[in-house]
Design brief:
20 strands; 2 domains; OB fold (Dihydrolipoamide Acetyltransferase, E2P); 363 residues; binds adenosine-5'-triphosphate; alpha+beta; Rossmann fold; five-stranded antiparallel beta sheet
Amino acid sequence: MAQVQLRDVVKRYGPMVAVNHLSLTINDGEFVALVGPSGCGKTTTLNLVAGLIEHSDGDIVIGGRVVNDLDPKDRDIAMVFQNYALYPNKTVFDNLAFPLRMRKMPGAEIEAKVRSAANVLSIEPLLQRRPRELSGGQQQRVALGRALVRNPRVFLMDEPLSNLDAKLRVQMRSELKRFHLEQRATVIYVTHDQMEAVTMADRMAVMNGGDLQQYDTPARVFDAPANTFVAGFVGSPAMNLLPARVSMQGTDVVLLGADGWNCTLSAGNGRKALASGSDEIVLGARHGAIRLLQEETPNTVHGRVYTVEPTGDITYVHVHVGAALLVVSVPPEVQVAPDDPVWLRFEQDKLHLFDGRTQQALS
Ligand code: ATP
């Protein structure tokens, strides 16, 4: 396996910048997920590492060697796509053997490698079947097996689970994780499904508009989003983000919400807000960081229930505060109905503060 480095990589399509000065190190044996909204440059980045498209600037380094001018076949990488790309008329065995036959490997060696990969992926009983005789999950395993037999230095995966139904996706997620653990593989994995990134990846790279927004462990990206984009993108339901002005009332630091609410900050949050020097702040609060109360209490924000969404073990309540719509979670036994007046308390130790101008997190 090998480390992969992108050093200040740029990809332009005419005037359009698809990948903008991207620097990223994927360590040997690390599983990194590239996430971000549609069109943010995830697939382009993967294809640049694979060599399927040429970059405009910067260096791509695999295993310590600059591979800018190397053909895809010489980069020693294997790709797994969402459509599997299996040969329909070949058996599973022949699908797995194909890349090895292309390399003119001796038959006995091919047999051993195919059996070993089939064993790892528990597809031995399927070796004589054809792709159409397999379920989606089995086909996906064969596609993975075909990548595995080549013993590549790096696995590149582009939404490999997106054609599977929800239940199978969850199962394959855990199998892929196990696969990574056992193979100690370097994996770069493109997905639009945050759950896949959060559950499988050692680190996730969040991209937007060709720019890298944050590169960190899923826990850090969730708990300490670098800016309002990451805060709003990672986590479901999305974090509540409320623009506000900072004001002093006596010794208290008070946020005056653009939507008519106000909230006195704790001493710690107040210091943070003042230290930024910015009088415009964005207050970030996940649904679990807001307490919903059914009577007025000091330092709460008044709102009105818009909709109630029970999901089983948690109920999401959407609350209008002025023009803003916030989502709050409550235990399922809480009785609340549309149009009820409610009061919201921000849990100070769970709040995020962002600079209103730069949108960057305040520290
Ligand atoms: P998705 O999740 O929708 O697959 P993505 O994050 O993988 O999106 P990319 O496919 O990497 O996004 O595309 C990044 C940007 O580059 C997009 O704006 C896209 O329209 C543009 N783009 C991609 N390929 C080309 C091309 N061949 N010519 C021109 N523009 C392109």
